[in-house]
Amino acid sequence: MDTGYFNEKERSEILSLCRSLLHSVRDISMPDDMRRVKALISQAVAHGHCQRDRYGINPVFHNMQTAALLCEKVSPDRNMVLAVLLFNLIKAQVVTPETIAKDWGDDVAKLISGLSKVAVLYSKQAAVESDNFRKLLLTFAKDIRVIIIMIVDRLALMRAINHHPNDKFVHDVAYEANYLYAPLAHRLGLYAIKSELEDMSLKYTDREMYTDIAHKLNQKKVEREAYIAAFIKPIQERLTQEGVDFELKGRTKSIYSIWNKMRKQKNDVGDIFDLFAIRIILNVPPEKEKAMCWFVYSIITDMYRPNPARMKDWISIPKSNGYESLHITVYGPNDRWVEVQIRTRRMDEIAEKGLAAHWKYKGIKSENDLDKWMNNVRDILETAETGPMELMKNFSMDVYDKEVFVFTPRGDLYKLPQGASVLDFAFNIHSNLGCRCTGGKVNGRNQKINYKLRTGDTVEVLTSNSQKPKMDWLNFTVTSKARNKIRLSLKEQAGGLAEVGRELLHRRLKNRKIDIDEATLARLVKKMGYKTATDFYDALGKEDLDITTAIDGYVDMQRKEQEETARISAETYKLQPPTADQESSPSEVLVIDNNVKGMNFKFAKCCNPIYGDDVFGFVSSEGVVKIHRCDCPNAANIKLKYPYRIIRTQWSGKLGGQFAATLRVVGRDDIGIVTNITSIINKEKDSSLRSISITSNDGLFQGYLVVGVNDTKALDNLIKKLKTVKGVKDVQRSN
What we know:
Layout: H1 8-25, H2 33-46, H3 59-73, H4 78-91, H5 97-104, H6 106-123, H7 131-140, H8 144-160, H9 167-187, H10 191-205, H11 207-219, H12 221-241, E1 246-252, H13 255-265, E2 276-282, H14 289-303, E3 305-306, E4 312-313, E5 326-332, E6 336-344, H15 345-353, H16 372-382, H17 388-392, E7 403-407, E8 413-417, H18 422-429, H19 431-435, E9 437-442, E10 445-447, E11 459-463, H20 480-493, H21 497-511, H22 518-527, H23 533-541, H24 547-566, E12 590-592, E13 601-603, E14 615-619, E15 625-629, H25 635-641, E16 646-647, E17 649-651, E18 659-668, H26 673-683, E19 687-697, E20 700-709, H27 712-723, E21 728-734
Parallel strand pairs: 2-6, 13-15
Antiparallel strand pairs: 1-2, 3-5, 4-5, 5-6, 7-8, 9-10, 9-11, 12-17, 14-15, 14-16, 18-20, 18-21, 19-20
């Protein structure tokens, strides 16, 4: 390539840039891609094409920088890199789109076409401060990869214009980067790019403020690094002691972020407490990610007092752009607050490279209210078997034809998804308005509550104080806000606040991998002053009792009970003789520790073993042998904690009655399906139906059947027959 085409600064960087680019694309490009690109660009430069623009920007050098940054920050596909490098040849009319499609493929030509349309938009001087510019930008960019290229292109330009002589040009580019490209980067999870764009934007629009903050940060650098080292040292020692595979990083917040805090809090840099954050990155397999993050969380909060108001759990519910991390703020030495971020290697890669990092991992769907196209992108990524760039090339970003825009009588504009009803509109304005909605006046005419809205409609919501949400409302509402509020209201009407509290507690305990023991929970209820468990759950549902307080109380009680029982060895237990009301099934069916008779045993209710299951015995604190299935959910924990209390157990071969087993049945809510299921059970000579519980929702039913069976063979035979019933989708044995 003609080095005379580049200025002195560019010549000093071009060799390093070429090497970096060649190294980055070697795994995604064809063997001769870069050679062919270089030949085309060299030919164009030799013939006087690809001239600098009016601001002195060299298009070839700039695009090489963009391609290198794309590889560093995003992990692109081959066609994205080629489109960036070849774009100027189309712009300079050196080659035609047809030639690009023939020599490089239709997808490269399509990407260049998208970039060309955006260039045309810029040439029309669209007002970047108007929201229409953002909409037009997304509409022009039919492929989401074009948006990603534009963001990285802007980062390359922002890096290049430091100390550019044209102040207005620098200011305009910086303003646009902060208004448009930084938010787009944020929505795609490209946080590193977002932070750099914001920092440089502040630098170019208020260099004095930027320099002042940077100078004050630098003055305190040695002190800050010493503090971070002292803060993380005990954490490192404890995590290493616990056998955790981790990496620890300390980082100062971005200058733009600090400036934002100064502006909002009206403070100086010295008054901002959380200037830096500690990041703990864990190396764990996917199935252990959440458990390990919460384990590390428990270690940190045990060492330093946390601030509950500043806790952010993006592991249980990830951000809309796929971001996952557990953020806590703790009170460190010298009365300073320190933010600690806990995440896994996978989560960190997604946080660093955003959307494109999902090609290795399945995304997590979110209900957060974000632009429709982001939801669609995540849906695609969830089923990704190859890279997202490959999938997204067929993804059309027709953003604004899948929404309806409607007005209130006062002229306020609301955006709703296509198919939204009058009821969706009412809930979108306010939950209470939705709960009391009876219909609406649409363009002056009365319409029913399920009327589907169209763009341009003016809607006045009609209400009644006697109106309450109904189950059939779920059939025609489409927004998550409306559907969630309807479900909650229906539970409240049925006196279901206690059930809401129960579900909340069980879900939170499950998220923290804590087994639920009803006996321990009952003692906690009594200790906290509630007469019944229903009163306890009702208080949780009403938020009269803080869920964290309840969980902490349960964990503390469980820990104390485990410590108490752990002091007793198996030899100290005196096995109790059988009693008349013993809860075991047919007598003399088990051989326990080589003895047949004289043993008091019970079948564990956590797994309900039946004749034929692989089982083991566990000596309980009451001296009774609890019989568990070997695949019991609690088996691994029991054997790990109390190996000395395990007793070898097997079936004796004598059979004298039936055992209770629970089956979970799922299927279509068709007429007569329950009758067909119960009929099959009753016809089986080795089976009997003891109880049945059925719930249905949205055309599906779920039922739990307690059946009496002689052994596992009879149970397996029954399950096979139930699966043949028309409408039954699944039958599984339940613990």
